[in-house]
Amino acid sequence: MSKPLVSVSVITYNQASFIEEAVRSAADQDYDDLEVIVGDDGSTDGTAELVSGLAEKYPKRVIALVDGPHLGITGNSNRALAACRGKYVAFQGGDDVLLGEKISRQVEWLERDE
């Protein structure tokens, strides 16, 4: 039985001090069928460049949305969510860190009983 694709939607704005650890915690999950969508909201502190670098490091896992205008939290959340293709979507802030088994445990629980 194949596992469903899961999207992790990460939104960020001027979080250069936190974004690398946050995105790595999502990208390094023990769950294979995963995409990490990172929506930067027009940061001016180098966050977008860090996100782009992480997308290069994890080319099949991290998708950087860094070229758009500043939309505010709602607009940026909607932009990132629209890019998600997974059956399930996990939401993460740009300063949040996920435990390594978060996604696999949640999928296991969700798939047990539709």
Describe this structure as you would to a colleague:
Helix 1 packs parallel to helix 2. 38% of the residues lie in helices and 21% in strands. The protein has helices at 19-27, 47-57, 72-83, 102-112, and strands spanning 6-12, 34-40, 62-65, 88-93. It has a four-stranded parallel β-sheet. It has 114 residues and is an alpha/beta fold.
List the strand order in the largest sheet. 3-2-1-4
Beta-strand fraction estimate? 15-25%
The computed structural class is: alpha/beta
- Multimeric status of the protein: single chain
Arithmetic mean of pLDDT: 96
Task: Describe the structure using short key phrases.
single chain, 114 residues, alpha/beta, 21% strand, globular
Topology:
Layout: E1 6-12, H1 19-27, E2 34-40, H2 47-57, E3 62-65, H3 72-83, E4 88-93, H4 102-112
Parallel strand pairs: 1-2, 1-4, 2-3
Brief summary of the model shown:
The protein is of the alpha/beta class and 114 residues long. Helix content is 38%, strand content 21%.
